[in-house]
C-alpha cells in the first residue's frame, strides 16, 4: 500500500537547492587529509544517488579541512518542493489500496 504512495510522491518531488558544507579537523594533518577525502567520497555518493532521478537546481557541497584543531561542523540546507495536490492524490491512492485489500504477498 505504501509502496505505491512513496513511488508517486518521489516522482513528484523537486529539489530546488542543496547546500552541504562541512569542516573537519583532527590534530594530525595526515589523518585530517584521509578523513576529508572519505567525507568527500561519502557526500559525492549521497548526492549522486539523490540526483540520479532528480535535477538539483542549486547544488553546493564542500569539505574544508581544519588542520590545527579537533573539529567537526556541518551545515546542511535543502529546499524540496512538493505541491499539496500531489499529497492529496497520494492520500487517495493509499485509501484506494487500503479498501482494495492492500498489497498481496503472492
TrEMBL record:
The keyword Transmembrane helix applies. Keywords: Membrane, Transmembrane, Transmembrane helix. The lineage of its organism: Bacteria, Bacillati, Bacillota, Tissierellia, Tissierellales. It comes from the Bacteria. This is DUF2953 domain-containing protein. InterPro entries: DUF2953. It holds the Pfam family DUF2953. It comes from Caldisalinibacter kiritimatiensis. The chain crosses the membrane at residues 20-42, 74-95.
Amino acid at each position: 500500500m505504501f509502496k505505491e504512495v512513496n513511488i508517486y510522491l518521489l516522482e513528484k518531488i523537486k529539489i530546488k537547492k542543496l547546500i552541504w558544507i562541512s569542516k573537519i579537523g583532527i590534530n594530525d594533518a595526515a589523518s585530517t587529509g584521509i578523513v576529508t577525502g572519505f567525507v568527500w567520497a561519502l557526500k559525492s555518493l549521497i548526492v549522486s544517488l539523490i540526483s540520479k532521478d532528480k535535477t538539483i537546481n542549486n547544488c553546493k557541497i564542500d569539505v574544508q579541512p581544519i588542520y590545527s584543531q579537533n573539529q567537526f561542523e556541518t551545515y546542511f540546507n535543502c529546499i524540496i518542493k512538493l505541491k499539496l495536490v500531489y499529497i492529496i492524490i497520494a492520500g487517495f491512492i493509499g485509501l484506494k489500496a487500503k479498501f482494495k485489500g492492500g498489497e498481496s504477498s503472492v
